[in-house]
Design goal:
This protein is an alpha+beta fold. The chain is built from five helices and eleven strands. Strand 9 and strand 10 (about 205-215) form a beta hairpin. Helix 1 (about 5-15) packs across helix 5. The two termini are about 35 Å apart.
């Protein structure tokens, strides 16, 4: 129950729950995460109450009645709090044998299947298949804006809270995943261990961000769409823009499926 949970994690979940994707976006400018609306919405916490946090049935951002599954995928941004009270996100390194994005860091997820009821189910199912994350352990608190990848796949980030990290015992599907690790969410707001590359595409000029992260088991590079999703998630959770120029692709704002 909420009374047994970290108050800071409950607060972070509230920030995500109150997020309104219709009033926040990457606008392609410098420090371009619009957090003004998130901060205004924080006043609604007293009306909603913390018992609403983590209730999947109250999430109204995930309307898939007219969605196309042929070019659609969902990823799970699964957040948990470590023993030091630091918020962290679960990531994977894709298997080197995969035909697409082999060996790259990714969020658990994959393409929508016909039997999936919605994007939330897709993200939870894929996470369970890839890393053995029981979907009953995850409270989905919001669904972020859909983002078109350059391979013409529309990616929907589903954000969930893993309230009890100790209850998760990873089981890696080696056909899809080479490694599982986690990283502090706040690192995606800091201008540390980060570099960028300017890209020109479809008449747009934007930045791709690269974050270097080292664990006991290896070194990882988190970049491109995955980095963009985590920059956005961190900005919502901590209610502040990053310490660096963002300049995400403008075409991301044109996808609101």
């Amino acid at each position: 129950m909420a009374s047994n949970r970290s108050q800071s994690l409950i607060k972070f979940a509230e920030n995500l729950r109150l997020y309104n994707p219709n009033n926040n976006s990457f606008d392609g400018s410098s420090n371009n995460i619009n957090t003004h609306n998130i901060q205004n919405q924080s006043q609604k916490i007293k009306e909603i109450g913390t018992d609403q946090v983590g209730n999947n049935e109250n999430n109204n951002n995930n309307n898939n009645s007219t969605r196309s599954i042929s070019n659609r995928a969902a990823v799970l941004v699964c957040l948990f709090e470590d023993q030091q009270g630091q918020l962290r996100v679960i990531l994977t390194k894709r298997a080197s044998t995969l035909s697409l994005h082999s060996g790259e860091v990714a969020l658990p997820g994959g393409k929508v299947e016909e039997d999936d009821a919605d994007d939330i189910e897709t993200a939870l199912r894929e996470a369970e298949e890839e890393i053995g994350l029981d979907r009953s352990l995850v409270d989905v608190v919001t669904v972020l804006e859909s983002l078109p990848a350059r391979n013409r796949i529309t990616v929907i980030p589903v954000v969930g809270i893993l309230w009890d990290r100790n209850a998760f015992n990873p089981v890696i599907n080696t056909a899809e995943v080479e490694a599982i690790f986690d990283a502090p969410l706040e690192m995606f707001l800091k201008d540390e261990n980060r570099r960028e590359k300017e890209i020109k595409y479809m008449g747009d000029e934007y930045l791709i961000h690269f974050f270097d992260h080292e664990t006991e088991n290896g070194k990882y590079m988190i970049w491109a769409l995955t980095a963009g999703i985590l920059i956005k998630t961190a900005s919502i959770v901590y209610q502040r823009p990053p310490d660096f120029q963002v300049r995400m692709p403008r075409f991301w704002n044109r996808s609101r499926q």
